[in-house]
Amino acid sequence: MDQPVLQIIVASNRPGRSGRAVADWFRERAEASGLFQVELVDLAEVNLPFMDEPHHPRLRQYVNAHTKEWSATVERGDAYVFVTPEYNHSFTAVLKNALDYLHHEWRHKAAGFVSYGGVSGGTRAVNGLRQVVSTLRMIPVLEAVHIPFLAQYMTEDGAFRPGEVSEAAAADMLAELAKLTGALRPMRLAS
């Protein structure tokens, strides 16, 4: 059996964002775990327009090339980790838009979260995301990485260097994602 594909989705497209640095750190942890083939998917690079498909995503009758490309990308994934900041007690609009573009491609796959922000560490963003991914039939793991006061972990050159708590949380989440991804495999194959 091939190794499952874990897609790390960077959910910020704001100029000057820290999300890419956080995602690069998590990607290194995921690759070092040896549990997954790892792909980094940056929504700033995907650059989807605001939802512009004429048909409901459930029908899979995509007309736009960008939607077909996004569908093929997400279809490759067996599990996802969403790296998201918290904006106004929620997750980003660019992530909501990317999730809403598709339907079948997400289902029966595990989802994890790396969130960052101020005092809450992005926990409110993750709470909102859990509802949305569950509606798309993804299965979110309980384990997560929440990074409060992100600025204290950023280096002068823009790299992210977290403490031991984040390192341990990342390892725990990856282990749980691997278990759940394996358990969900028969459901994905039957779809």
Helix-strand blueprint:
Elements: E1 5-10, H1 19-33, E2 37-42, H2 43-46, H3 65-76, E3 79-85, H4 93-100, E4 110-116, H5 123-135, E5 139-140, E6 145-147, H6 164-190
Give a verbal description of the structure.
With 191 residues, the chain is an alpha/beta fold. The chain has a single domain (5-190), classed as Flavodoxin domain (Rossmann fold, 3-Layer(aba) Sandwich), CATH 3.40.50.360. It has helices spanning 19-33, 43-46, 65-76, 93-100, 123-135, 164-190, and strands at 5-10, 37-42, 79-85, 110-116, 139-140, 145-147. Strands 1, 2, 3, 4, 5 and 6 form a six-stranded parallel sheet that branches. The chain is globular and about 45 Å long. The model has no long low-confidence stretch (mean pLDDT 96).
Question: Main β-sheet: number of strands, strand sense, barrel status?
Answer: 6 strands, parallel
Spatial shape: globular
Mean of residue pLDDT values: 96
| CATH-defined fold name | Rossmann fold
C-alpha termini separation = 18 Å
Order of helices and strands: EHEHHEHEHEEH
Number of domains: 1
Helical stretch tally = 6
Beta-sheet strand percentage? 15-25%
Instruction: Determine the structural class based on helices, strands and strand pairing.
Output: alpha/beta
Rg estimate, integer Å: 16 Å
Helix content: 40-55%
